[in-house]
Amino acid sequence: MSAVRGTVTTAEAEPRSPTSGRQRMRTRLSPGRERNAVEAAVAVRRPVRDVFDFYRDFRNLPRFLGDVMDVEVTDAGGTAPLRSRWTIQGPKGLSIHWTVEVTEERPEELISYETVSGPPGVRSRWDIHFSRGDEPDTTVVREVMGLPFGRVGRRALSLVGKPPGAEAEANLHRLKQLLETGEVTDTAHAVPGKFDRPGP
Question: In the prediction, which pLDDT does 117 show?
Fold first, then answer.
């Protein structure tokens, strides 16, 4: 199992996830932005094209994102899902709805998207990078998640049980599991019961 990796320059590391085989997540301040960026990366034993195409179909995201319950593509934009409506389960079971827009796409290299609902100052942004790994037919997926309100916002999320670094780590690990084995067993930082396997 390839480890999830992170780096740190200006902000302290978040606590280690209880899931074995994954290193602790770190955060750093993104150059040119007044907010923190949580970074995580994972190596997936699948070709870049397969991993990119799977992620690009946003309807697949609830299959590994811990708090995303549903994604409805509302504007396909011809060749890519430009806008989609996400249903998120937040703290205490609260349902939250986001409108998300793809802002940049480079085939087999990058998908960038951000929330467009709500005030501009509290929007989040994700840059998902895809590159070929050192081993044949292996893809490195690197997520850079920009958070509003910087370190304060990150700590506020942690206080309500949603530490962004640990969530990013767990989500990428579930993506790896799903694409390599066809099933998800990592339930860290996910809605309780979402990834539970049905009984006999």
Answer: 79
62 by DSSP, 3-state: which? Answer: helix
* Residues facing 125 on adjacent strands: 114, 146
**Helix 164-181, helix 48-56: angle, nearest 10:** 120
Lowest mean pLDDT: which of 23-37, 52-66, 67-81? 23-37
Look-up of token digits 């249903």? 87
- DSSP secondary structure letter of residue 22: -
Both tokens assigned to 91:
């703290």
What sign for the dihedral angle of Cα 142, 147, 150, 152? negative
The predicted model scores a pTM of 0.77
Chain center to CA of 131:
16
Does residue 48 have a pLDDT over 50?
yes
φ, ψ for residue 187 (rounded to 5)?
Answer: -110, 10
Give dist(CA 160, CA 67) in Å, integer. 13
> Residue 25 and residue 12: Cα distance in Å, rounded?
10
Q: Which of 142, 123, 169 is nearest to 55 (CA)?
A: 142
Average pLDDT, stretch 100-110?
95
